[in-house]
Amino acid sequence: MGMYRREKLRKLLQTYTFGDPPKCWMGEDMSAAQIIAQLQAALRKLEEAEHHIGSAGKAASEARHLAAGALEGSSGQLVAQLDQLIQTLGQVSQMPAKTKEQVHMTITRTQALGN
Q: Which domain holds residue 50?
């Protein structure tokens, strides 16, 4: 990869990684294809995270239902905490999709710079 392309790729990666990219990404031995392969591995990890967040949300909902049923309405503070947890997990569940979108954009731009 030429010096100009490497510097352009470094600037692109700084934009999407919020700082300097890992040194191994910019080494002479690291090709655009290798960078793309690592980004694709990151996508798989994000998909795993989505699954885990979804499972956590379902488990929290089940815990809320069980707690509310067991305490028959007198569990206001506990149910409120579980409701807050469910709401927070709902907000967090949107983050992997947004992040995956950024990774896809970075892959596309890396492919363009690598060609």
A: 3-114
